[in-house]
Amino acid sequence: MKKSFASLMAGIFLISLLSAWQFPKSVASSSQADTPVETRRADGPAEILFWNVFADDTLTGVFLAKAADSFMEKNRDVKITINGQGGYDSVAERLEAASASGNLPTMAIIEETFLGRFHPIAAELSKYLSPEVIANYQPGLLASGYIGGSLYAVPFNRSMPVLFYNKTMFDASGVKAPPATWKEFRETAKTLSDPAHNVRGAAMCWDTDAWIFESILYSWGGDILDETNKKVVFNDGGRASEVVKFFQEMEDEQTLFSPYNHQEDPWITIGTEMLQGRAGMMMSSNGMFPLYSQWMADAGYELGMAGQPSFDGTPSAATGAGNIVVFRGASEEQKTAAGRFLEFLAQDEYAAEYTALTGYLPVTITAMKSEKLRAMLSEKPMYQAAMDQMKFAHRRPLTKNWKNMYTTIVEELEACLSDTRADASEAMKSAAAACQKIMDENPD
After folding, report:
1. Bridge-partner residues for 320, per DSSP?
2. Domain 23-86+104-159+321-381 classification at class level
3. Average of pLDDT values for 59-86?
4. Phi/psi of residue 48, each to 5°?
5. Which CA distances in Å does 223 have to 240, 368, 405?
6. In whole angstroms, what separates CA 127 from the centre of its chain?
7. What secondary structure does DSSP assign to 207-223, as a single string?
8. What are the angstrom distances between the C-alpha of 249 and each of 144, 232, 245, 435?
9. DSSP class per residue in 41-104
10. In this structure, are strands 202-203 and 256-257 parallel, antiparallel, or unpaired?
C-alpha cells in the first residue's frame, strides 16, 4: 500500500536537516559496559569521547554505534562513547566553547569547511594513521583534510551535489537522458514544463550554506577564493552574476520553480513539488539518495540520479558533509586509539557498508571495488554517477570566515530568486565586496 502524502511530507521534513542534522540526542555504544575487567590494563582502557552530528536512531547513528561495538570487541583496551551534539553548526559552537574551557572530546565529526576554524586545535593525523590507509582514501575527498600540507581530518559521511530527476516524467515527455550541461538542463526543463498546470521542469534551492550555488559556480568555471585563500573571486568577470541570471531567466520562462517566495522551508517546498510531480529535476546531495528513492517510489514515480551538469562539458563540483578530526589536546594514548578506530572505519567492510546503507560516498578507493558496492550498483546503477563525480571534486574555501561569508551570499541569492527583477550583477557585486571585507577584517 502506498503511503499517504501526509506521511511522505513528514519524512521529507528531513531534507531541511540535510546540512545541519539538528538532532540533540546522544548514544553511548552499548557494549562498552560489557568489557571484562580482567581484559583492561591496571590504569583502565583508553577512553574515547566521539562527538557526532547524528542521532542514535538515524542510519548513521546506528552504524557508528555498531562499528564502535565491533571495534571494542577486538580492542578491549579502548572504550568509545559516542555522543550526539546536534548539527554541524551546533557541534562547531560547542567545540569552540569546549576548547575555551579545556574540555574537548577526543574526536568529532565537523562539516568539511569548518576545518578552517578548527585545524589549530586538531591533531596531525599522519602520526596516527598508516601511510597505506591515508593513500587509500579518495583523493578528491581527502583534499579538504589538509591545511598547509598537514593532514588534520579524514572523510567519513561525505557527499556531492547531484542531479535528481523524475524518470517517469522524463519517459512520458520523451526525454532520453539527463542533461550533461546547463544548456541541456534549460532545454530539458522547457520540455518537461507545463505552466498551465503549474508544472516546472526544474526546481532550485541554493541551500542554507550556499553549497548548491558554490558547486554550480565551480561547474561554471568559477571559484570562491583565489589560490592564496585571501582574495574573493566568485564574481570575477561577472561569473556569479551569470549563474544567478541564468536561473532568474528560467524562472521567468516558467521552467524553474523557486521556493523563496513560499513560507515553508525551501527544501520541503521543492521536495513537495518533486513528490507531487510538479517539478522534474532538482540538485541535492547524493546522501539523500536512499530516502528520495523510497519517497518517490511511494509517490508513484521512479527516481533517476545523474552527475551535476557543467557549463561546457568540463565537470567540477563541490564536496560536502562530514570529516572526522582528532583533537591535539587529547592524551597520546587517546590519539593513538582514535587513529586505530579511524583505520577500522576505513576498512572495506565498513566503508562499503556505510555507502550501501546511507548513500554517502565511498571514502576509500578499495571500497569501490568491494562485493557489497558491486551488489549495490547492480541493483541501483544510477549511483555510479555519484561515484564517477568524485574525480571532479573542487577544492573548498577552507577559511574560518566561510560561515559569515556564505550567510551574506545566501541573502543575496535568495533575494534574486524571490524577485527576478532583482539585479543579479549588483547583488553578486555587493556580496563579493561584503565577503572581501569579512576576509580583510579577520584574516586566517
Report:
1. 159
2. alpha beta
3. 93
4. -110, 120
5. 9, 29, 14
6. 27
7. -TTSHHHHHHHHHTT--
8. 34, 26, 6, 26
9. -TT-PEEEEEEESS-TTSHHHHHHHHHHHHHHHH-TTEEEEEEE--SHHHHHHHHHHHHHHT--
10. parallel
Provide φ and ψ at 277, rounded to 5°.
75, 25
**Sequence-separated (6 or more) residues with CB below 8 Å from residue 29:** 65, 68, 69, 72, 80, 81, 82
Q: Do residues 108 and 26 touch, judged by C-beta distance below 8 A?
A: no
Q: Do domains 23-86+104-159+321-381 and 161-318+399-441 have the same CATH topology?
A: yes
Span 196-231, pLDDT tens digits: 999 999 999 999 999 999 999 999 999 999 999 999
Answer whether residue 33 shows pLDDT above 50: no
Angle CA(98)–CA(101)–CA(102) in degrees, nearest 5? 80
* Contact between 287 and 18 (Cβ < 8 Å): yes
**Structural element, H or E, at residue 325:** strand 320-326
Q: Note the CATH architecture for domain 161-318+399-441.
A: 3-Layer(aba) Sandwich (3.40)
Q: How far is CA 186 from CA 32, 45, 180, 183, 191, in A?
A: 54, 59, 11, 5, 9
323 forms beta bridges with 110, 155
User: Within its chain, how far is the Cα of 270 from the centroid?
Assistant: 18
3-state secondary structure of 432: helix
Report the percentage of the chain scoring pLDDT > 70: 91
**Rounded Cα gap, residues 155 and 143, in angstroms:** 9
SS3 154: strand
Q: Which of 307, 313, 114, 119 is nearest to 215 (CA)?
A: 307
Give just the sign of the alpha carbon dihedral 365, 321, 212, 115.
Answer: negative
Q: pLDDT per residue over 343-363, tens digit each? A: 999 999 999 999 999 999 999
* Residues 16-34 as b or e (16 or more Cβ within 10 Å = b): bebbbbebeebbbbebbee
Domain range annotation of the chain: 23-86+104-159+321-381, 161-318+399-441
The pLDDT tens digits of the residues spanning 271-310 come to: 999 999 999 999 999 989 988 999 999 999 999 999 999 9
